[in-house]
Amino acid sequence: MRKKIVAGNWKMNLDYNEGLSLFSEITNMVKDEITGHQEAVVCSPFIHLHSLVQLAKGYNKVSIGAQNAHQAESGAYTGEISAKMIKSVGAEYVILGHSERRQYFGETNQLLAQKVDTALKNGLKPIFCIGETLDERDGARHFEVIQTQLQEGIFHLDAESFAQLVIAYEPVWAIGTGKTASAEQAQEIHAHIRSEIAAKYDQATADSMTILYGGSCTPKNAPELFAQPDIDGGLIGGASLKSRDFVDIVKVFN
Ligand code: 13P
Known about the structure:
Blueprint: E1 4-9, H1 16-30, E2 38-43, H2 46-55, E3 62-66, H3 83-88, E4 93-96, H4 99-104, H5 109-121, E5 125-130, H6 134-138, H7 142-153, H8 159-162, E6 166-169, H9 183-200, H10 203-208, E7 211-214, H11 222-226, E8 233-236, H12 243-250
Parallel strand pairs: 1-2, 1-8, 2-3, 3-4, 4-5, 5-6, 6-7, 7-8
The structure holds 1,3-dihydroxyacetonephosphate.
């Protein structure tokens, strides 16, 4: 059975103290209620990572991730953070290829392929984001865009490395807009992603890949989305900044 994950992406929100207090609220509410093949992940700004890892220690189903990592191992890249640094504070995950990184920081599939390699080499599990813009969907190019993102971003990996990934489908038009993809729209793409993985690797690899949905996910729409056969959880932006909402989404799988 593949792992179910609800991951919060705090983006560039919450100062250090605000972040720690939100995380404490989350862990207090979650306690031991996360069951079975399920995991909650909080992807915070770099500043919070070390402290959150310490606070998460009593909760074996709560993990911590970063939101970006540089493609180089180390070097003269002023202001950047390496995968090794992230790993060294005990974080397990790193979001790579978020549409905001692609859009505002010019991250291409080629660059992301390098970031994925470096993250994996340093023992981090990438949460690799893909998804089409509104223009691309309106032009009926969403399948093609997703296929290219998979092919150029992660399909160079061997099967063993590929199995370390989590994939997140985040239609750009649904991010922070309050306009979520319908359960049918999301399921259609998730099934497509899984069939692409089966074609590239094999059915067992496809069947064990955790594929998350992201984009205006709330406690209200999560139950229907997560009930779809190919949706294995969510990558949550806005709602992950409210402890009650985030925990309610985590508990959808209980
Ligand atoms: P929202 O949940 O705020 O739409 O953000 C989704 C997202 O970008 C998560 O990575």
